[in-house]
C-alpha cells in the first residue's frame, strides 16, 4: 500500500479542523516573516501596476488589481500554535508600497474587506484554499464597488444551495481525505460560454477540465436585458476560473452573470496584444496572495502559454484522482503567472 502523503509538509491544521496552506513552492509561511517578500519584488510590483494602469487607460480601459487573500491573512487566530506575523501579510505590505503610486488607483483591498467580515459566515472552505460562495460574493461586490458597477441583487434566488460532501485541495493531502459539507455554488444564469481555446476543449474532452490551468482562455456572453453592457477581461487564476461548474465558488461565474461579455485568461501576466484587439472597458488582474513572490513577465501571449501547457498536460497520465468520484481541482500551489512554470518563453 502506498503511504498517505505527510500533510505536515504543506498543510497546518488549526482550530476546529481549519486547514491552512503554509509551504509549497511559494513558501507561504515564510512570506509572513522577515524578510518575507523581498523589498525589490514589492518595488517591481509597484512599477508593474503603474504601467498597467497607464497602458489600460490608453486603451480606454480601467485597470483593477485584486489579491485573493490567504486564510492566514484573514483568520490568523484560527491557526493556533503557528508562529507568524499576520501584519506582514504580502497583500498588506504591497498596499503600503503602492502609496502615492499610480498603481494605487487600481488596488482592490480584498484583505480589508475579508477581515471586516471574518466573524460572519465562513469565507473559505475548511478543507480548501478557496472561498465559499459567501467569500466569493464578498470579493465580487468589493471589486464591483471599485468599478462603480452595481452587483446583481437576485443571485441568491438563482443559486442551488444544496450542500454536498466535499474534500478540498488541502483535505485531499491527508489519508484518508478530510471532508466537509459544502454549500452548492451552481448559479442559474443567462451567461453562456461562447469561446474556449484548444487547451480547455481538449482537457474537457478527456474529462480533465479541472486540470486546465495556465493558458486556459474562455469567453462568456450574457444577453440578459439586465446585464451591464460593458466588457470585462480577467487575467487570473483558480479564484476566477473558467467554469461555473466548479465545487468551489469562482469570480468568473458571477462576473459573467453581471456583464454582457467576460473574457477569462488564466495568467497573471498581461497579454497586451489581446487587449488591443478586444478593447475592454475593464481589465482585472486577479491572483492568489501567495503568488506575490512570483513577478510575471512584462509581455505574454495567451496562446503561446496554452500551446506549451497542452504539450505538458496532455502527456500526463490520468490517475485515480481524475475519476468522476473525485473531480480534479486546481492544486493550492499551482503556478498562476510565470510562463516559466510551463517552460514558456515570454513573447
UniProtKB/TrEMBL annotation:
Pathway(s) served: Glycan biosynthesis; alginate biosynthesis
Subcellular localization(s) per the UniProt record: Periplasm
Keywords associated with the record: Alginate biosynthesis, Periplasm, Signal, Transferase
Domain AlgX/AlgJ SGNH hydrolase-like: from-to ranges: 38-178
Compositional bias per record (Low complexity), positions renumbered to this chain: 335-347
InterPro entries linked to this entry: ALGX/ALGJ_SGNH-like
Pfam family, one: ALGX
Annotated stretches, region: Disordered: 317-347
Protein name: AlgX/AlgJ SGNH hydrolase-like domain-containing protein
Species per Swiss-Prot/TrEMBL record: Methylorubrum podarium
